[in-house]
Amino acid sequence: MNEIERKFAEWQKNAVTLKPELDAMTDEDKKEAFYKDLEFGTAGLRGILGAGTNRLNVYTIGQVTQGLASYLTTGKKAPTVAISYDSRNFSEEFARHAAAVLAHNGIKSYITRELKPTPYLSFMVRHFGCAAGIMITASHNPAKFNGYKVYGPDGCQVTDNAAEEIYRFIQKTPVFDVAASDFDGAVKDGSIEFVDVTREYLDCVYARSVGKARKVSIVYTPLNGTGCDIVPQMFKERGFDDVTIVPEQARPDGNFPTCSYPNPEKAEALALAVELGKKRGADIVIGTDPDADRIGAAVKTDDGYRLISGNEMGVLLIDYIFSHMQGLPKKPVVVKTIVTTDLAARVAESYGAEVREVLTGFKYIGETVKKLEAKNEGERFVFGYEESYGYLSGAYVRDKDAVVAAMLIAEMTADYLAEGKTLADVLDGIYGKFGRYFHRTVSYTYEGSSGAEKMKSVLAGIRKTPPKDIDGSKVVDAIDYLSQTKLDLPKSDVLSFKAEDGSKLIIRPSGTEPLIKVYVTAATGGEKRIQAIIDGFDKYLK
User: Fold this and answer.
1) Is 139 tagged catalytic?
2) Among 94-108, 199-213, 356-370, where is mean pLDDT lowest?
3) 84, 87, 109, 139: which one is catalytic?
4) What pTM did the predictor assign?
5) Cβ atoms < 10 Å from Cβ of 465
6) Among residues 221, 353, 399, 472, which one has the fewest Cβ atoms lying within 10 Å of its Cβ?
7) How many angstroms separate the CA atoms of 383 and 318, rounded?
8) Are 272 and 220 in contact (CB under 8 A)?
9) How many CB atoms lie within 10 A of CB 142?
């Protein structure tokens, strides 16, 4: 009996709630479900829902929670954990099972009674002084996925060292040896406590308000996710009374029936909202992803609705905050990731801001905020963002927050309309002043049991034979973030190549999906040059 068959037999015997699915498995299904265990990292777990060690189910959720419990109770007294969840299938079930496992280990949980955004969970961790936080979410992935994010006591997603230590405890935990308390009984004895900190959280969001004008027509979609109640509540309380919600996407639905890939980075995710915007003549269309930490937007122009990229929205918000905010701190700090446009730095520096660059992943922006607060300089942090549509203003949470971003985008649109300008006009003005960089992110997918090894092989090949030019412009600066020692950054599986003309290629494996992502910048030549660089990279890979 091989290892896959051994694992399958063990699950058939013990995973009683999943037996019908196991019995229906083909040999190929078994291979994909059992060829490995789900790996735990700084992004926690993310996987396809279903039976097996390489799938997310109540048993793998129990195993990782027991590992976290063992980690938390080693040398720590009476730790507590905050828990929330998004609109995905089984999210509430997984969240409650995690709380029950923690209760069996003597760990109290503060859990939301209903789905809440990921940044809300980050806020809960610090509000209640918890040792950790658990967010059940697969962010913007397709409906077949779910996930399990772990946050540290600082409200950031756990960093490399903590993730590795937790993973060691997980690996020591047999998947079918996990015990859980009765959930309702644990609620009665206080081991699990339902909480609601919406008022406290929104008050912190509102403290980041910049604008005065409110005359703006908004179409909003929560994409069947956690923004469904809290974002409309924010709009109402902040005085935005012309808001229309896309009816087909207004309520939670883990099947995402109108949008197979609920990612606001993709034009199709906002298609229904833009269609409704055209009917209503809305000034701005806004969409948040299922766990409401990312946000996309499209602005009305004379030529129709113009989608604003993640890079562009970040540049707009930096320019708006610094030109309109009253009482900016001395020595303000803006934080961007290494794959985020250099235009953001040029705009921020024009206002006298210090720009700090970090690795990809919002946890690194959160760490920067934490370091500032450790020096009693937390008020210096004004804005942080990554090109993948994640933004944060202020230090009240340590993760990207689409709720505060929605407020600022609405205020920004209204203020500029009062000045006779659209966001498109302002953006074109910024390009006229600072120059325009063209960006595109392309992904290469490596799914299944052979995908992980293929990804490693591709990255090893790039390291062995790196590109010498970017569409004819000589590479003059190459950084391997896995081996570099000069930069004050953690080691990371990222490769960066900069050409003589300023064009860039940044290559990294996704931390949550079976993808290699390539971030392409064309410093000259516009969209045609971007495509030429991508075509050249395709040939190079082959």
Assistant:
1) yes
2) 356-370
3) 139
4) 0.93
5) 9
6) 472
7) 7
8) no
9) 14
